[in-house]
Give the backbone structure.
Amino acid sequence: MWIDCYTLPKNQGIRCEHCGTYIRNVFVFHFDDGFSLKCGVDCFNKLVKKTNLSQYGAKALKKQADRIKSFNDMREKWTRWQTPEEAEADGCFQRIEDPDKPGFWRVRTQSEFEEEKNFILNDLIPYRISEIQKETKARFKNIRMKQD
């Protein structure tokens, strides 16, 4: 089993497959038999309690979900930013040391920003999410849901 976690934009939520409520923060359980279940935060917590995980294991699984969610949030921010100034205004530090003047800092140029953006969106984030999912799959491979 492995999990995925993401947030949908406003007015684009879905229904929880466990309880039927409208959700924007989506947790997806992917099971080894190909079955997947999309649920909200409350149902995620309820389903984790129904597993054979210890309290420590449940906390570790939630931490993995939070790590995936943070990378998906990072992807959303980097997709939204078009210039280094927008990123800087939104709290993402875009200053680098000037190679011509050591000790002086400057804002990235547009081409440097685009290069960094492409690396983060196409290489870093997908790699980190796949590593977290592999780790989750290996670590939580023997999870069983208790029957009601």
